[in-house]
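WARN no homologs supplied; continuing
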Amino acid sequence: MTTFSVVIPMYNVQLFIEQAIESVLAQEFCDFELIVVDDCSTDRSLAIVQQYDDPRIKIIRHPHNKGLAAARNTGILASCGEFIAFLDSDDAWRPDKLQAHFNHFNQNTQLGLSFSRSEFMTYEGKPTGCYQMPKLTDISAIDMFCRNPVGNGSAGVFRRQALFQIQYSRRTTEGTSFCFFDEDLRQSEDIECWTRFMLSTNWRVEGITEALTLYRLNQQGLSANLDAQYQSWLKVLHKFELDFPAFAQQVKRPAMAYQLRYLARQAIRTNDGEKAVGFFWQSLKTDPEMILMEPARTLATGGSAIILKQMPKLFRRSEKIMMKVWSFFQRISLPQRTP
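OK structure emitted
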């Protein structure tokens, strides 16, 4: 059995797929297979992958476009690794990511899902020095659904034994398929999977302090369509109301507020002040206590949204300064990387 199976779902990412694959092939831990699932790309993505002459790379082609969740499911079912890692095709990894997760799992036999912190990179693929800084330990299902500490689809690595405990069958016009990620969701499929995993099993979820994932700020990606993203997230909430009603009732209001605040921050990143302010006020109306629970982050989001809407030129002039200050304080709280 291979130690790691790395699953890359791919659809029309000719600008990014080479960086993703190269980051896997550069891993210090070499015992892995790389499964690229082509979801009917119409650009040069498939041709780029086919140029690699490495026996560890396996290419699977969908007969028709099925979406990100289905591509991940296809990769999982074709895998043979003891651990299953996911890398979105527009993201990348640091060379020591797999080694760090291997050590993490070996140190804790009850660990089912391991994840790393992530560093943002530009559309062009350059690290920005700004990071996702989530909670890493003592994570509950409420933490997961409200705050998604895993952060993105390229940060998490499952123990195979743990992941297969949430496998379920789904009947379609093509027959019965086996799922881990919900194929009815075109967005928010990752947070649904992580949370359902925590609600359905007794495995632990913990993070690694180092930022080992590079998460691309890609406005053309799925996360750029904020209204669609919110509607998809509401579908996840409705699903939990049916399957885990007590949990959904407990978490509904704060989770909705945090999601709206997150969307406000995403709108700020796309320079949409109108939408940012709208999402921010919705978040406060949904759960005013959020400003007491996290005053600094909430006020910073609201202030940035208002300045962007009312004084966009001032916001753009001050944005780089704010990012440098934010980056400085994040870096000093991260463990120092060896050259």
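The mean pLDDT is 92.
OK
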